[in-house]
Amino acid sequence: MRARDALLLAILVAFAASACSRLSFVKPSAERGRYTQVAPDYSYSDSGDSRRRAQVRAHVAESGRALDAGDVDQAARAAEAAVKADRTSADALTMLALVEMVRGNREEAGRHYAAAARHAPNDGAAQNNYGAWLCREGRAAEAMEYFERALAAPGYPSPADALANAGACAEAAGRGERTEDYLRAALRLDPENSVALSAMAEYQYRSGRYFEARAFSQRRLAAAPASAEVLLLASQIEEKMGDMAAAERYRQRLGREFPHALQHNPGG
């Protein structure tokens, strides 16, 4: 399994008006050893620092397992313990931000994402995550600065995620002419990047290039589990292509897999 598959947590908000609802948030991992990026390495061993880093790794791992299992309260307790062990740990702060996002506490999540980005300026994941939060909150111009910081971060292992986010956010930031460039760059690095594929399908659809939109939509559906908005867009594309039978199949699937979605979009 690729590292990206294990680290990527896509937070999707169905039927949002802007492509900024489809953004990549990188989930911290205890196996990545990113904790030393917060401060420079030293030639001597500090047992206190080592113990603290080990505590953070353990709490972050526990929080991640609990969150994956749907136990949000336990995830919160473990994330708070990680932050208590090291208030400057980007991974601890990011995990707590993820928990707050799941709880629906957007402002709290943003505060923790901002702290992670501030404490780890050379951590591309921390910069990307705060940029994604800013874009979702309608602060697209600010978000683009953080995506660029992520791309400039030394050793950032997931530039496709930041490029995909930049492409999904560019139009709202007044950089619509860069949308396709960002998204194609993301797909060159990661042809199955679900955020880039979703955003490209919608971009081509809005541009009236329905054949291209269909191709990217089909690639998106093959790359990752469907979301309600992905199925809705697929049905809309097929309508524009004149294939009403295919459009209806997508709508039927939408009704089966996301039964509340059609209540919000009764006319497609």
General description of the model:
This protein is mostly helical. It has helices at 3-7, 47-68, 72-85, 90-103, 106-119, 124-136, 140-152, 159-169, 179-189, 194-206, 210-223, 228-241, 244-257, 261-264, and strands spanning 8-12, 22-26. The chain contains 14 helices and 2 strands. Helix 2 runs parallel beside helix 4. The protein is globular.
Using brief descriptors, characterize the structure shown:
mainly alpha, 2 strands, two-stranded antiparallel ribbon, 268 residues, disordered N terminus, 66% helix
Assess the beta-strand content as a share of residues. under 5%
Low-confidence segments: 1-21, 32-44
Helix fraction by DSSP (H/I, runs of at least 4): 55-70%
- Output the helix-strand order: HEEHHHHHHHHHHHHH
Rg computed from alpha carbons, rounded to a whole number of angstroms: 19 Å
Which geometry do the CA atoms define?
Answer: globular
Alpha-beta content class: mainly alpha
User: Total strand count, please?
Assistant: 2
Q: Looking across the biggest beta sheet, what order are the strands in?
A: 1-2
Mean pLDDT: 86
Between the first and last Cα atoms, what is the distance in angstroms? 37 Å
How would a textbook summarize the main sheet? Answer: 2 strands, antiparallel
What layout of secondary structure does this protein have?
Blueprint: H1 3-7, E1 8-12, E2 22-26, H2 47-68, H3 72-85, H4 90-103, H5 106-119, H6 124-136, H7 140-152, H8 159-169, H9 179-189, H10 194-206, H11 210-223, H12 228-241, H13 244-257, H14 261-264
Antiparallel strand pairs: 1-2
Helix pairs in contact: 2-3, 2-4, 3-4, 4-5, 5-6, 6-7, 6-8, 7-8, 8-9, 8-10, 9-10, 10-11, 11-12, 12-13
